[in-house]
Amino acid sequence: MNKLLIVGSVAFDAIETPFGKTDKILGGAAPYIGLSASHFDIQTAIVSVVGEDFPQDYLDLLTARNIDISALEIVKGGKTFFWSGLYHNDLNSRDTLATELNVLGDFQPKVPENFKDADVVMLGNLHPLVQNSVIDQMAVQPKLIVLDTMNFWMDCALPELLAVMKKIDVITINDEEARQLSGEYSLVKAAAKIQTMGPKYVVIKKGEHGALLFHNTEVFFAPALPLEEVFDPTGAGDTFAGGFAGFITQSENISFENMKNAVIYGSNLASFSVEKFGTERMVSLTQEEVKARLKQFKLLTQFDIEI
Amino acid sequence: MNKLLIVGSVAFDAIETPFGKTDKILGGAAPYIGLSASHFDIQTAIVSVVGEDFPQDYLDLLTARNIDISALEIVKGGKTFFWSGLYHNDLNSRDTLATELNVLGDFQPKVPENFKDADVVMLGNLHPLVQNSVIDQMAVQPKLIVLDTMNFWMDCALPELLAVMKKIDVITINDEEARQLSGEYSLVKAAAKIQTMGPKYVVIKKGEHGALLFHNTEVFFAPALPLEEVFDPTGAGDTFAGGFAGFITQSENISFENMKNAVIYGSNLASFSVEKFGTERMVSLTQEEVKARLKQFKLLTQFDIEI
């Protein structure tokens, strides 16, 4: 079975949306990526760090989905990374109420021996130096390295981000971040410029407006599924990335044509993630539901004009 | 040949974008709709009104594209409707600098005898009473009536708008207008509610984020083609509507499956319209260019996941 290595935060999230609020629940990039990727027939491991306050239930939840957490370090006496956010009425914008890095501040990822030959590496949003250290630990060049990042690192660690970007294959960022990173307003121009910085593939996430995949002069668009209700957008981008990376790992095919399918899988899984608070929907999600919604994606996008 | 009747404003537009500005050029909904629809093998007529200041060149331009302008009234001593707008840097928002209704203020549309049996009627954005009077003049029930409107009429003539909506088949509005008209934030819920008001099909235009087509529980999404540069978005929505209506008129098929193709044709033609100021690009556009870009739309959206 092919291997996907996931590196990213594991967190407590406290979320408030117009539909309700949660106490501290399971959050962070790695669980969203991992739970999403767990819907594929692959071996998955998470490299991350939590504090002693991290409940066994959450560890069990990940293990139950066949995610290898032997490299999820538990720091004795430490506290788990905590994030709290308040979504506005349109769910497209949010205020961060709290960010307590705690044990994540000193995170030194250690790639387990049995994943140093992972086929695909998914680097969740973290300090670029941490992302870089993971790449350096790989014994075999992965078939594909996917990196997620955010505007915060463009502001505070741009040289380090640019350095790690030279070593990766795919970058996933949102539209505003693509504009900031490239200095170009047009997403076509932005993606072209970002490709000169290293990654051969650029995925631009536009939230409810879908996602664009760029490679050379090729471009593909995956819409977000129009939903009656978006309950909690937290983790949608990571769920998308997990679906993308998971599908590529399973299929062993990094052609642009197959990446189109990966982007659709990512959008598909993300469309479930936002239906409930946190990771709840991803845990209950069945293969039948995934398949049924893939059919919806076909109906949503496929047409038969003869040219 | 099937007939498409177009009713809408004919105007002088003065446009300023970050890329330049124009003096008074040909504008208004009807020319954009008509030039877009002129790319299909159909008979097209425009019902509208202009002043004596309207140049023969613009009339010739429409006639050269086989658009019947015998019902384009020219008011002696009157002045043509004038609109002036300034686009912001992102081209997604604009300020209206001037709106001088002039002869459009007293417009009484007269449907020509030979188009009272039109297969499709495209009602461009006008006062709902004017749109209604066109429907009342039809001798034969059209196969499809498409209506475009805007928030202005929701604010100032809502009862009249709701009345004409009961007589139409397809409404095209943008996302904010769909939310205003329905009181629902979710576009899925908004489209469902708008369908209870009359139109069986709801097209929600999202500008650079594409367009959604709703009918009962079915939904289809046409992306906007990602462009290196959008030069002037004026008339993109009308060009979209003209492509939609023109394709339906030509194909005589109002199934949901065929409407998907119509929405793609609309997006395709709109992607050209924004490449130059005003109607310039639509006038020079060739069938070969349209076909080549349809292929781009296929590459942009089609995937081959086996389910």
TrEMBL record, chains A, B:
Gene3D superfamilies with a match to the protein in the record: 3.40.1190.20
Q: Which Pfam families match?
A: PfkB (PF00294)
Q: Does the keyword Magnesium apply?
A: no
Highest rank taxon of the organism: Bacteria
Q: Which residues form the Carbohydrate kinase PfkB domain?
A: 3-281
Question: What's one GO MF term for it?
Answer: kinase activity
Give the InterPro entries listed for this entry: Carboh/pur_kinase_PfkB_CS (IPR002173), PfkB_dom (IPR011611), Ribokinase-like (IPR029056)
Keyword field: Kinase, Transferase
Q: Does the keyword Transferase apply?
A: yes
Q: Name one GO cellular component term.
A: cytosol
Concerning PANTHER family, the annotation shows: RIBOKINASE, SUGAR KINASE
Q: What is this protein called?
A: Sugar kinase
Species source reads Flavobacterium restrictum
Q: What is the lineage of its organism?
A: Bacteria, Pseudomonadati, Bacteroidota, Flavobacteriia, Flavobacteriales
